[in-house]
Amino acid sequence: MTDQTTTTPPPRRARPKVMTLTPRAAERVRAIMASKGPEIAGLKIGVKKGGCAGMEYTMTWADSVGKFDEVVEQDGARVIVDPQAVLYLLGTEMDYKTDKLSATFVFNNPNQAGACGCGESVNLVPAAQGAADAASE
After folding, report:
1. Measured CA angle at 108 (ends 73, 99), to 5 deg
2. Residue 78, C-beta contacts closer than 8 angstroms, at least 6 positions apart
3. d(CA 60, CA 45)
4. Number of helices (H) and strands (E), helices first, in the chain?
5. Over the stretch 15-72, which tens digit does the pLDDT of each residue have?
6. Does the reported pTM lie above 0.85?
7. What is the rounded end-to-end Cα distance, in angstroms, of the chain?
């Protein structure tokens, strides 16, 4: 008789979120999503080359979630992270700030090495390999 014991793999631990939202940011995303209607899948966040510091954050409304997109759902808000931006956004906190003259989303990003004077572009470096490995588990 042969020993046919099977082993079950250990349970996977939960993947950390690529980014988090403050309650103010979640409330604002949720409110805008509600006004856009049910066909909107979420707010898509990415980065692109540009500006005097080298990179810019991008935000667009997505009508679907791509195969490799990361989805962050928090307090009824859904943010979709472009897969090419994940290493630049690991650990980022998205906030929503208002003052007398403006209201804007703000990214508190540990991967930001600098920013231009006008605040429109940033210098981002990819997250360390250890952080990337933790996010992919």
Report:
1. 95
2. 29, 33, 41, 42, 43, 71, 72
3. 7
4. 3, 9
5. 667 899 999 999 999 999 999 988 999 999 998 887 776 788 899 999 999 999 999 9
6. no
7. 38
